[in-house]
Amino acid sequence: QPLIGSAKEKLSQFCHVPVENILNIHDVPNIWHVPLILRNQKAHEAIIKQLNLSRSAGPPELRDWTLMAESYDNLSTSVKIALVGKYTNLSDSYLSVVKVGQESTFKHIKVSFLVTNITSHTRFIIVLNQACQ
């Protein structure tokens, strides 16, 4: 949820940052939404002002980026992956593998990527099986 005004004011006061430079980047359905959130909060204006780039920089052009975020949100087919590893109970332990899978399935075959974690005490294996439940 977005920060309320009083929370931004408190952060501004204790962190010595102007209120307009405090951004709220909350959980989103997919990573492609983050630049859109930043644009909607006018992050580019704060950066341009701070770096004194007003003569050479303008607002971001995110039309293609918006289409990509919306496309990802509207995927109807998915591939299911069983991720077997020693540390699957730790949320970030195989994050790079998951992110690569999400990126490549979206870009190359236009399907979403679902992961089922299976703990193993011996070795790390990825099992690709569309029928995996």
TrEMBL record:
SUPFAM superfamilies: P-loop containing nucleoside triphosphate hydrolases
GO biological process, alphabetically ordered: CTP biosynthetic process; pyrimidine nucleobase biosynthetic process
Any Pfam family matching the protein: CTP_synth_N
Claim: Acyltransferase is one of the keywords in the record: no
A GO molecular-function annotation: CTP synthase activity
Keyword Transmembrane helix: no
Key words of the record: Glutamine amidotransferase
Record-annotated CTP synthase N-terminal domain positions: 4-53
InterPro entries attached to this UniProt entry: Class_I_gatase-like (IPR029062), CTP_synthase (IPR004468), CTP_synthase_N (IPR017456), P-loop_NTPase (IPR027417)
Protein name, per record: CTP synthase N-terminal domain-containing protein
Species annotation: Aegilops tauschii subsp. strangulata
